[in-house]
Amino acid sequence: MVTRAPDRYILRMLRLLSYLYWTIIAITCPIFFVGALLVWAATVLFDRRKVVLHLYSSAWAVFYVRLNPLWRLRTTGRELLPRKGAAVLVANHASLIDILVLFDLFRPFKWVSKSEIFKVPFVGWNMWLNGYVPLVRGSGESVRRMMTRCGQLLDQGIPVLLFPEGRRSEDGHLQKFKDGAFELAVRHHAPVYPIAVHGTGRALPKHGLVLRAQINARVEVLPPLHPTDFPDTRALRDAAHTRIAEALDQHP
């Protein structure tokens, strides 16, 4: 099929916007990281949970969402999330920018994220600084370390956030959930908060960094699920999957 002239023009404009956008990120990341170091140094003695640093990191991430003229972001249900206390947050995962938009929750939590991101200059260093939890995909030993660390965090009253699909969706459709997040909730008597992330797959899909046409992303926090209301881990997992799937179907 021959690409029409207007389509070629739009594609060139999107490529140019993408280049400018990622250039701005590359330039400003070192500046934001210096700010993170200052926040860490100023709060390390009295903020053992690193809540202030996490909120600074949230503002850093959301700045990049608001900066993009093609992206709109709205978060609903934030008031359902606890400001302190153990909780397991689970969200669907369709795009790289899911990480950015979920920071718009502006609530304390520790990420569980693949270890490769921790190696990214400035961004990954800030994740180490925050005490987020790395995971090597496919490594049983790494999974065990992650579960142990998340258990320690939950026992300290610190929420954790995981992508129970395990990896980004290839086509935007919700994948099966793994058991890990729900085993944590059951073992540590922590409520599960399903979170539906809408619209991000169209902004920046799994393969490629070229921005797409304008999207309206939304982070939707759904009512919590309490482990004591379910007979076992599998039932809790399936209930969370159903909650998110229904929310995505209702508002794609």
How does this structure look, described?
The mean pLDDT is 90. The protein has a single domain (5-250), classed as Glycerol-3-phosphate (1)-acyltransferase (3-Layer(aba) Sandwich). The chain is of the alpha/beta class. Helix content is 44%, strand content 14%. It has a seven-stranded mixed β-sheet, sandwiched between helices. It has helices at 5-43, 51-67, 98-102, 123-130, 140-155, 180-187, 233-250; strands at residues 71-76, 88-91, 110-114, 133-135, 160-162, 192-198, 215-221.
Question: Which strand order spans the largest sheet, edge to edge or round the barrel?
Answer: 1-7-6-2-5-3-4
CATH-scheme architecture: 3-Layer(aba) Sandwich
Domain module count:
1
Main sheet overview? 7 strands, mixed
Give unreliable regions as ranges. Answer: none
Strand count: 7
Strand content: 5-15%
- Radius of gyration equals 19 Å
Helix content: 40-55%
Overall mean pLDDT stands at 90
In one word, what is the shape? globular
Identify the CATH class.
Alpha Beta
Instruction: Tell me the number of helical segments per DSSP (H or I, 4 or more residues long).
Output: 7
CATH topology: Glycerol-3-phosphate (1)-acyltransferase
Please identify the structural class as seen in this structure.
Answer: alpha/beta
Q: Helix and strand succession?
A: HHEEHEHEHEHEEH
Give the N-to-C terminal Cα separation: 29 Å
Question: Which key terms come to mind for this protein?
Answer:
alpha/beta, 252 residues, 7 helices, Glycerol-3-phosphate (1)-acyltransferase
